[in-house]
């Protein structure tokens, strides 16, 4: 009997000297220093932002910004400028550059991305943020900095807010107890996506037991979109290079239909979760985001080793890109690769704040696993 070969790949969890320890006030960002409730990062930079401590200035201080490339609607207080380099709707995961200019740079200045645009900054956590002097230390001398944010489609527009804690004592009548709070001094126009409701973020998982090691596999595709069941979400597929009408499925097994080009399609089931479905705060409140709708559809039983092309659609005319799926081989003598990784944290691939000692390895491991998958080392 053939003995399967076993390849093991390890992703080791990176530890830092501050792992599991309290972080002193001196190690926090300047705008957080002195706030007792923020003396722990809890492995997540956004846990250091308390929306209740963020304020917008009185409208009398807000100067409407002239129309920008990405539209009108932005504003700033005197002495600050914030601009975004987008022109029209952007694609999912686009990298946008935000430029901040001021004559009075300060280490307490930071920017944050919000979705939906116009969100109440005192009630909703930002999607991501960056401290300007950490992105470019020269900001403290020049008063000018460019920050790159990669924006993932959240089924809604984004906007960018600039904060300056040092603005309040000079320009507002707040009492000293409020001087630790950060004040929004500029806000960009909305940044929109091309068809934010389009099907995206497809992922494939096994959906049922395999009858025999060499038998067909049952696989499921799940994806998200901004449109519900009334838009008839569908999964379309065909075998790679299969001629038209080459594939047949036993009648009555599944509701499968055929279309031009040799593709077949099946209706998807649809579900949605709300804040009430989450465990507890902050997920039920300031941290909740409307994820949109989640769709699920099964492929027919696919022969091991086959290659399948598939795409997703709905009745609005929206169509995803076409994906390629290699169904894993199940021969008894086939090599087996086990990819093992620990809690790698959450890294970033832009200028947004991350706990780099803990989260940066997550990016490296993700890139390595993706490269191995593309090279055929992982099924």
TrEMBL record:
Region forming the signal peptide: 1-20
Residue ranges constituting the Purple acid phosphatase Fn3-like domain according to the UniProt record: 91-164
Superkingdom of source: Eukaryota
Transmembrane helix in keyword set: no
Key words of the record: Signal
Protein name: Purple acid phosphatase Fn3-like domain-containing protein
């Amino acid at each position: 009997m053939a003995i399967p070969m076993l390849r093991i790949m390890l992703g080791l969890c990176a530890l830092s000297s501050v792992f599991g320890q309290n972080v002193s006030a001196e190690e926090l960002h300047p705008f957080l220093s002195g706030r007792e409730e923020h003396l722990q990062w809890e492995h997540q930079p956004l846990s250091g932002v308390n929306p209740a401590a963020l304020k917008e200035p009185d409208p009398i201080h807000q100067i409407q910004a002239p129309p920008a490339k990405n539209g009108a609607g932005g504003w700033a207080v005197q002495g600050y400028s914030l601009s975004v380099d987008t022109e029209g709707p952007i694609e999912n995961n686009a990298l946008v550059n935000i430029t901040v200019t001021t004559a009075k740079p300060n280490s307490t200045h930071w920017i944050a991305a919000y979705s939906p645009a116009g969100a109440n900054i005192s009630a909703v956590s930002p999607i991501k943020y960056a401290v300007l002097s950490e992105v470019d230390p020269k900001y403290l001398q020049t008063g000018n900095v460019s920050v790159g944010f990669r924006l993932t489609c959240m089924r809604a527009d984004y906007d960018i807010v600039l904060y300056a804690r040092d603005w309040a004592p000079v320009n507002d009548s707040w009492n000293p107890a409020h001087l630790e709070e950060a004040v929004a001094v500029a806000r960009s126009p909305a940044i929109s996506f091309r068809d934010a409701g389009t099907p995206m973020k497809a992922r494939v998982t096994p959906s049922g037991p395999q009858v025999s090691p060499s038998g067909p596999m049952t696989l499921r595709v799940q994806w998200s979109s901004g449109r519900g069941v009334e838009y008839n979400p569908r999964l379309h597929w065909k075998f790679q290079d299969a001629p038209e009408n080459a594939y047949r499925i036993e009648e009555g097994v599944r509701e499968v239909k055929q279309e031009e080009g040799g593709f077949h399609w099946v209706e998807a089931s649809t579900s949605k979760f709300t804040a009430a479905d989450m465990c507890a705060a902050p997920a039920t409140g300031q941290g909740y985001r409307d994820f949109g709708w989640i769709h699920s559809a099964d492929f027919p039983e696919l022969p091991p080793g086959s290659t399948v092309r598939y795409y997703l659609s709905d009745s609005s005319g929206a169509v995803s890109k076409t994906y390629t799926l290699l169904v894993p081989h199940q021969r008894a003598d086939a090599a087996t690769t086990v990819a093992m990784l620990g809690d790698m944290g959450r890294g970033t691939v832009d200028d947004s704040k991350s706990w780099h000692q803990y989260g940066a390895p997550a990016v490296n491991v993700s890139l390595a696993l993706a490269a191995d998958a593309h090279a055929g080392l992982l099924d």
